[in-house]
Design goal:
The complex is a heterodimer of chains A (112) and B (111).
Chain A (H helix, E strand, L loop, with lengths): L2 E3 L4 E5 L4 E3 L2 E3 L5 E7 L5 E7 L5 E3 L5 E5 L4 E6 L8 E8 L5 E3 L3 E6 L1
Parallel strand pairs in A: 2-12
Antiparallel strand pairs in A: 1-4, 3-9, 5-6, 5-10, 7-8, 8-9, 10-11, 10-12
Chain B lengths: L3 E4 L2 E4 L5 E7 L5 E7 L5 E9 L2 E4 L6 E3 L9 E3 L8 E8 L6 E2 L3 E5 L1
Parallel strand pairs in B: 2-11
Antiparallel strand pairs in B: 1-3, 3-8, 4-5, 4-9, 5-6, 7-8, 9-10, 9-11
Classes of the chains: A mainly beta (112), B mainly beta (111).
Chain lengths: 112, 111
Amino acid sequence: AQSVTQPDIHITVSEGASLELRCNYSYGATPYLFWYVQSPGQGLQLLLKYFSGDTLVQGIKGFEAEFKRSQSSFNLRKPSVHWSDAAEYFCAVVTTGNQFYFGTGTSLTVIP
Amino acid sequence: DGGITQSPKYLFRKEGQNVTLSCEQNLNHDAMYWYRQDPGQGLRLIYYSQIVNDFQKGDIAEGYSVSREKKESFPLTVTSAQKNPTAFYLCASSFTRGEQFFGPGTRLTVL
């Protein structure tokens, strides 16, 4: 069965520190992968997506993610976190049948 | 500007009432989705539609109903059969196997 796992429920980092949010997926075919960000009381905003090609993808707000097929992972990274990055982050995969699977989310707190 | 809109932003329901949440998109997307989000929880799929006049139940469809008479519109009705409807509701749309675009959400509270 298809699924997405985000092992970290909550992460706290200091402003200016680097960030890595983990995402593992379970899907037999070529995955299409996404990272979204959600601020409190708002909808989800797409940060970046991977369909094919270069396994390191760049997104908005200085985020990047690396697709590693051997590890079934699609981890999100940012070299230097800003206070405005505090939010909930969701990883997602879509199947060939257009079924979306979201992880349970990682809540990011940024300490000044 | 293309986008997806939801209305109202806040909605209050009395016990025993049905209420309808609106979702409209002008992105020409074929697929539309409704999710429920509870505090500290992820997204749970209520219903989705891949094409006009067709929709499928998601993981938590009980107590909800939808229609898809137009490509642009996918309203969600929360019926009195839904015993715990207080939540944040998100609508999304997408092309086939493309990224989902989300609306700003509707917060429903039962009085």
